[in-house]
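task queued by scheduler; priority normal; single chain, no ligands, no partner chains; default sampling; output format set to structure tokens
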Amino acid sequence: MAIFQLLYRSEPTAVVTAETLEQIATVAQRQNEACGVTGFLLYRNQRFIQLLEGEHQAVTAIMTKIRSDRRHQNIQLLFAEDGRDRVCTGWHMRVVDPFQDTETAGKLESFVNQFLAPEFHIPAAEAQDFLSDIRMQLAWAPFIRTHQLASPP
């Protein structure tokens, strides 16, 4: 079964704090686990970058909620395709926390800047490898885990 993968970026409409990210992590992990969605959320330079992956219907339902969420603005879809494999197995939502470790967050700067560039585009043929590289980068990054994860889907 193909996994639908969706990557987007957006800007918050209000100030984001460590507490805000913790609240997002708690809700997203619980809701995503319930519908079999995995992924990550990065917050850096007043921007969100998020990967959602799972069944097409579950992922698009979440994206519909995000698009209507008044806490997001300037939402840009970067990639939405069927993937070969789930990239974020076991991460119902890994929220990378720049407030927890600013040194590590700074190391992610050039990586995150790729996503923020206006001309950023992932060719479909390269998406799976690109997303796997992202996962490798994020595996060591500080993150918020406020909800115990069940077995990976």
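post-processing summary
- Residues 35 and 58 are 6 Å apart (CA to CA).
- The chain has five helices and six strands.
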